Amino acid sequence: MTRGGCRGLIGSMNLLAIGCSYRTTPVEVRERLAFSDEQLGRALEQLSRQLGFEAVLLSTCNRVELYAAGDGDPTDYMADFHALPRQEIRQHLYVHRGEAAIRHLFRVAASLDSLVLGEAQINGQVKKAYERALLHGSTGPVLNALFPHARQVAKRVRTETGISQGHASISSAAVDYVKEVFDHFEDKTVLVIGAGKMGTLTLKALRGLKPRRIWVTNRSPERALAIAQECRGEAILWERLDEVMAKADIVLSTTGAPQPIMTRERYARISARRTRWPVVILDIAVPRDFDPRIHDGETVLLNIDDLKSVQERTLERRRAHLIPAEQIIEQETRRFIKDWARRGNGPVIERLTREFEARRKEIVGKLFSRLNGKLDAADRQYIDKAFSLFQNQLLHGPISALKEESTSGKEQSHTLLEALRKLFRLE
Amino acid sequence: MNRITIVCFLASYGLAFALELLQFWSGRASLRFLAWLAAAAGLLAHTLYLYSRVPPLIWQFSWMLFVAWVLAVFYLCGAIHYRRLNWGIFVLPLIVGLLGLGLLFGQPPETARGLWQEDLHELHQLWRPVHVVLILLATVGVCVGFLASLMYLIQAHRLRTKAPPGQGLKLLSLERLEAMNRRALLLAFPLLTAGMIAGMVLIARSESVGWTDPRVLGTMVLWIVFALLLFLRFAQHLRGRQVAFLTIVAFLLLLVCVVLAHPIPGVE
């Protein structure tokens, strides 16, 4: 098939969505199917230039998907590209065709199929995947219509429902709590205790608040220095923990200590030296670093369960918006199919009219030449009009039927389109 | 303008409060807009009333009207500045409460003259208006401090119970509320002190009011509470919650003083 050719425009879109996601496939398989930047470019060129498909590849940590339009079946393409056994990979893949593929893309872009429902990142990833495909020239009429529409759908779902409301990550929940306590951060000190991986994202989010300084302390001074350099902070000796605790406004604790490092008694001694209130302590270590009895409303102590519960509540609220969001997806899928059908019908109707017009003119021309000299201008005009009327009445039936089928949104319009093409030999 | 009564603006503020409550429960932004409109209408009527009647500040009724007017301006400015916060739920009931209290005190007699309508032939007669205006401004400061403290305690309670951010009442951060309370107190204390000094001069010249008069004693206790509050806040680094409690106590004490303070004898 020629990419972007006439057949693609007037016939069925032959759209396929093939892939795997966190729902169907373990991470061990997903990571084998994932595409690096260099691989993406190579695969897109291969799919379009060698295999004749319109193609967009979406490769994120939660899903690897190929959207392809064209003749043929690229189901095994991903397995072949990565030189993996087809049988082994096929069991993990889902394949959506036509309308189901459209619906699937819309759900993915609107983040209804995401691990964290309503997260905003996926829409950007879909956009990026499409832009990359554009860059490699692997898109055509089908995907050029489908992907921009998917972005609009995602925007509609986001603005018309509450699916993206609230913060659904631990780090954003932590920042939200911090903002309930503090108004400005340019005079605040953040103290990071420990070097747990759990704290990396939260520290990044806290850095976004632009605090005055970040202190990092760790039992290992080298580790403290490494983290301090990473976050443009200052490494503090572990022995000075109590002293800096008394001065910090926000504390992020992520040690791997088996016992709490901060007992109530120790904290009471630190509190006595403190001149600034309130203080927020984000204890996201497991086991916990701080005695929970420290929490009193002005020492706001939040542990990982508190932050997770905020995340859960946010997701619960978002889930309440799933039904209206799915309704939008359904409406938009129908609308896309209708638009597509209308777009596909246009050239057929134009061709049909042009063919009939040419034949009419030919017949009328022959008739006029045979009756040459016997007709005056008024007769000629009358005959020409009569033939035009006949042509219009003849075409009215098939054109109306085609338009009705396309506006119904049913896939049968493709069959009717094919029938018209064959009946009137419009190949 | 003579047809404007206290009920007109009291009802407007009451309606604004009801709309703010409805907005809080339903979450519909349009209700907040309607609340602003109702409060703005109330403020307009309130202003026209004060402008046309010029009620004598020496009477508690007028006093309440003036303080409520300042707070109504405070509400509208705050509501527009902090559009997403439940500002009105706190400020409007205080305005309605003060106006209600004013009604309870009763209107001054028709013969009573406004503060600036009195004959101020001699310099010493200026002490009275100076005393009244300073205490009035100090009262506004205490009211703002009270509102900030109330919101502070609720926000602190929300944090203590680990209520999810962004749900339920939407309030300013603890830090901002504490700053609002601190500024209000820092403004109110010097005004109260200066107002008290003016009051002392008046007592020294008065034959009917002595140092043991309950309203004089009440005001002194209020000043002591204020001084203690500032000392604890700035010298002892008292925590925000305790400062908020003490501010609420100072506000209640102020109400007691206002109730005790009947018109200064000799002025009808």
Number of domains of chain B: 2
Structural class, judged by helices and strands of chain B?
mainly alpha
Low-confidence stretches of chain B: 264-268
Question: How would a crystallographer describe the biggest sheet of chain A?
Answer: 6 strands, parallel
CATH superfamily of the largest domain in chain A: Glutamyl-tRNA reductase, N-terminal domain
Average pLDDT taken over every residue of chain B: 84
Strand content of chain B: under 5%
In helices, the fraction of residues of chain B equals: over 70%
Strand content of chain A: 5-15%
Low-confidence stretches of chain A: 1-11
Q: What is the gyration radius of chain B calculated from CA atoms?
A: 20 Å
Major sheet of chain B:
none
CATH domain fold name of the largest domain in chain A? Beta Polymerase, domain 2
Number of strands of chain A: 10
Task: Quickly count the helices of chain A.
Answer: 17
Terminus-to-terminus distance of chain A: 15 Å
Describe it.
The complex is a heterodimer of chains A (427) and B (268). Chain A has 427 residues and is an alpha/beta fold. Chain A folds into three domains: 6-165, Glutamyl-tRNA reductase, N-terminal domain (Beta Polymerase, domain 2), CATH 3.30.460; 170-309, NAD(P)-binding Rossmann-like Domain (Rossmann fold), CATH 3.40.50.720; 345-423, no CATH class. Helices cover 56% and strands 12% of the residues of chain A. Chain A is built from 17 helices and ten strands. Chain A has a six-stranded parallel sheet with strand order 7-6-5-8-9-10. In chain A, strands 2-3-1-4 form a four-stranded antiparallel sheet, with helices on both faces. In chain A, a hairpin with a 3-residue loop joins strand 2 and strand 3. In chain A, helix 7 (121-135) runs antiparallel to helix 8 (141-160), helix 9 (170-181) crosses helix 10 (198-207) and helix 9 (170-181) packs across helix 14 (304-319). The longest helix of chain A has 49 residues, at 322-370. Mean pLDDT of chain A is 87; it is low at 1-11. In chain B, 72% of the residues lie in helices and 0% in strands. Chain B is built from eight helices and no strands. Residues 264-268 of chain B have low confidence and may be disordered. Chain B has 268 residues and is mainly α. Chain B has two domains: 1-107; 125-268. In chain B, helix 1 (6-26) runs antiparallel to helix 2 (29-53). The radius of gyration of chain B is 20 Å and the shape is flat. The longest helix of chain B is centred in the middle third of the chain and has 34 residues, at 127-160. Chains A and B meet through helix 9 and helix 14 of A and helix 5 and helix 6 of B.
